[in-house]
Design a protein that fits this description.
5 helices
C-alpha cells in the first residue's frame, strides 16, 4: 500500500505543475464572484429562481454559477487547447 502523504505535500506537487497557479487564481476569482453575487442576491431578498427569471436564464444556470460548478463553454474550450 502506498504511503499516505500530507495535504501540504500533495498541494505543493500540484501547484508545481505548469499553469497550476493560473488555474488556481481563476478558480479563486470565480469563487469570490459567486460569493459576492450570492451576498447581493440575499441582500435584495431574491431567490435564485427570481434572479434567473429577471435575466431570462434557467435557475440551474444561476445555481451552478453561484456554486462555481460550471464554467462557460468558451472558457472550457480555451483551457483545453
Amino acid at each position: 500500500m502506498a504511503e499516505r502523504r500530507a495535504w501540504s505535500d500533495k498541494r505543493a506537487e500540484i501547484m508545481s505543475r505548469p499553469g497550476a497557479g493560473a488555474v488556481y487564481e481563476a478558480a479563486r476569482i470565480r469563487f469570490e464572484l459567486g460569493k459576492a453575487v450570492r451576498r447581493r442576491r440575499e441582500e435584495l431578498g431574491l431567490t435564485q429562481a427570481k434572479l434567473a427569471d429577471g435575466r431570462s436564464l434557467p435557475s440551474s444556470a444561476v445555481r451552478s454559477s453561484l456554486w462555481n460548478v460550471s464554467r462557460p463553454r468558451d472558457v472550457r474550450r480555451r483551457n483545453q487547447q
